[in-house]
Amino acid sequence: MNNVNQTLYIPLYGKAYATENHILLKDNKAVEIWKQCQISLKGKSKSKWLAYYMAMRAKVFDEWVNQHVNEDIVVLHLGCGLDSRVLRVNASCEWYDIDFDEVIKERNKYFSESNTYHMVASDVRDTSWLNKINSSKALVVMEGISMYLTNDACKQLFKELTDYFEEVRILVDVYSEFAAKASKYKNPINDVGVHTVYGLNNPTYLENEQLQYIQELEMTPTAYIEQLPSKDQWLFKTLYAGKTASSMYHIYEFRK
Question: pLDDT at position 92, please?
């Protein structure tokens, strides 16, 4: 895999670590994949603090999907990596996990398609994959992907999604512009060779005539922090939930 695709192992490890320590998530598939994939992470990318953060981010996205999913909607997980959200949430609808060809090849080792679950090998920016989907309503999950797209590419992707569906909700996490610049020098993704990412300061930039920015979701809810071991809660708050950290990384919801 190229360096960007290798970043998928960082959240995978976080979800496996949280599950094995009975914190935040129950993701036995992540544990299974992590044990089988024989990947060696190093530095901050394998710290328990980042593992907590990755698990917490996943839980925020999971709860959002659970809140909005129904039988009449299709879920599109863009840049799915090796995530097993389709197994973690209560979804009985059509579900598409979409990522680069080499990621889907890796994913096929651990997941099987069904009548309602599909894996699509594609660059998400080449939206010809939309032609596979027969639905007028969609939930779009973009976790850990926007920072590898330019703002213009992300805006264009949002435009094509809103043109295709009659109703669509999008949840996306983004770096601020400052965080993107700082990431060149200090970010766990550097440990797998990635140094170029993109940031966004104003979520309304991604709006179009059909799509509106709705709200920002909390990245590190207090209720989730309180699920961490008591001895770790204070330092986690300092590292990942303080004012500085909160200003660098955001989760935004959009709706048509």
Answer: 85
